[in-house]
Amino acid sequence: MSIAQDLLRKMIQFSIQQEKRGTLNIDDVVARALPRLEHILLFHELWTERQVTEKYRFSQRMLRNMRFHGRGPTYTKVSGKVFYRGKDLLAWLDNGEPSRWRSKE
User: Fold this and answer.
1) CATH number of the domain bearing residue 69
2) pLDDT per residue over 10-56, tens digit each?
3) Contact at 8 Å (CB) between 87 and 43?
4) Number of domains in the chain
5) What is the pLDDT of residue 16?
């Protein structure tokens, strides 16, 4: 079962439970599902250098320096343009790499 299928199944189960209790509120269902859905989308997307720097609030220069020194997230090039896979960004962020780099500057 895929992550998206699992999420959908849990949303439906939660909705059924709420409906049985008479407390079904679609906003609650969405609020519970949204963080996981965002994670799924991030995991499968390709991000440009600019998108990464805007999302995580550091400069393109810093990201390029990290890439040059082998300290940045794993990247791929398509037609000479740099892209980052969402799963590589998450792994890199989970390892605390951006904070280690900032502390050395």
Assistant:
1) 1.10.1660
2) 777 877 787 788 777 777 777 777 777 766 666 668 889 998 888 88
3) yes
4) 2
5) 79
